[in-house]
Amino acid sequence: MAEAQNHASPADPVPNARLEEAAARLRRLVAEVLSGLTRKIDEDGHYPENFLRAYGRDYGFGHAVDPGYGGQPGGLVGVITGMEACSEECVSTGFLVWCQTSCAWYLQKSGNAALKRSLLPAICSGEQLAGTGLSNLLKARSQIEPLRLRATQAPGGYRLLGTLPWISNLAPGAVFAVGAATNDGTLLALARVGAPGLALTRAGPFCGLDGTSTMSCRFDNVFVGRGDIIADEAEFDSFFARMRAGLILAQMGMALGLTQGALTLIEEARSLARPTDTFVQHQPDGLRERLRVARADTLTAAQALDVGAPPPFTEILAIRARGAVLALDSAQGALLHCGARGYLERHPAQRRLREAYFIAIVTPALKHLCRDLARDAGARDATPAV
Hints:
CATH topology of the largest domain: Butyryl-CoA Dehydrogenase, subunit A, domain 3
Helix content: 40-55%
Strand content: 5-15%
Structural class: alpha+beta
Number of strands: 8
Radius of gyration: 20 Å
Number of domains: 3
CATH architecture of the largest domain: Up-down Bundle
């Protein structure tokens, strides 16, 4: 694959002074707190709850949320910027930030004003932890698998039956969104950890991201009141169209942060005294330029979504797919530049490679993205150009 993007480089998005100040605070928090936890998160499966609470206080999970519901300025750009800062150090933590901000994103797009008033301020501040259980829904909407949850009407709401295998950021007391099939279509509901009939079993162990409090969730006639419906059958299609692009684009924060972290490893390891380093396929200059373009593409699309002028959805899919490939290339480049040292079990290049694989398989996975792009283009091969 070529080292540089083969399309014209976009102009860098206009900076936001208030967001830059908040991002500077967050970078200090990452350096002072998260950097000391990364190995424990990766090797011991430590769930960084205290860091997430501090993130909510110092930076906030509500950059894409209306200030009237506890949001902070910055829009989706702010969401992605925060996720990138965490993922440069630790993708597990960046992913947890995505889970929390995704739930806030769903509620922001909901027409349920009472639910928004009751929960969004606490989610934005990190007081209320929140997850996202929409992997199955995204696959179902792409006709990859059926919906695993069934919702049947009950007095005052619905009862949910079924199993969702992997839902993350499910600490005690957390809330999370789930999609379910009904007789009349699909609805999106808010589930609550601890609800009668909801059984959680720790998923894994995984080769990476084991510190994300990821659970298998079995719903045995779990009651969800009408007040906890994010989008009912009548409004679901329009709701899904409003929220899907931002949900997927925000994942780029993980890819951008990981790439920057991998570049740091390459720069630390690469030496002109080792002439073989120049023969590693992915060189730092090429990766750095691809990162610049990916970040500009991402933030430009985020700004467009913030002002209600979204780019074509296929453009969002293509950006996300290129981000997954960039993460894989940069992590592989980091390990190969580090050489034999990078093959040591506890070397950070090993973690970066495992994190990159996660970025390529988390829903929507790279193969899912390429399939949707291929279907849209009517082509057999929609492998992203990099």
